[in-house]
Write a structure and sequence with these properties.
Blueprint (H helix, E strand, L loop, with lengths): L40 E4 L1 E4 L2 E4 L14 E4 L6 E2 L4 E2 L48 H7 L1
Antiparallel strand pairs: 1-4, 2-3, 5-6
Family: Belongs to the leguminous lectin family.
Protein name: Legume lectin domain-containing protein
Pfam families: Lectin_legB
Length: about 140
């Protein structure tokens, strides 16, 4: 999988919420991608290209400033159960190929988060990586 080092792009790989009935093993693998996006992935301002996910469509010849791309795992499941006092654990591996564009400004970074909502917070570009909005009080509480 490769990602261009572009302005204000980040990666959100998976969306976790919903229901997991019992403790068990849940496994998925996207080691090869085709031009058609796998139905389990929801891409926003990102595309499948050359067996990889290109974060920010603009990286392919467009304006790169204030851009971000997001990828969600589209099947929700629960990470914990308050009733049963069970917390799940998970591990993930990403293979990155970063191809910098020499004349482009640098990006702010990349993030992997789990979230119940796929909505992009308003005013969350740049240093906020599309995770939280520009509101210092809220950001201090979420850190």
């Amino acid at each position: 999988m490769w990602f261009s080092k572009v302005v204000k792009s980040h990666f959100l790989a998976f969306l976790f919420s919903g229901a997991l009935t019992q403790v068990g093993c849940y496994n998925f693998n996207f080691s090869t991608l085709t031009q058609t996006d796998p139905p389990q992935l929801k891409l926003e301002n990102a595309l499948s290209l050359s067996e990889a996910i290109q974060i920010t469509e603009a990286a392919v010849g467009g304006e790169l400033e204030n851009q971000s791309g997001r990828v969600f795992y589209n099947k929700p499941f629960r990470l914990w159960s308050k009733k049963k006092n069970i917390t799940a654990s998970f591990d993930t591996t990403f293979c990155l190929r970063i191809n910098p564009i020499p004349t482009s400004p640098v990006g702010e970074g990349m993030a992997f988060i789990s979230a119940a909502d796929t909505a992009l917070p308003q005013n969350s570009d740049g240093e906020w990586l599309g995770i939280v909005k520009l509101n210092h009080q809220w950001n201090l509480l979420s850190s």
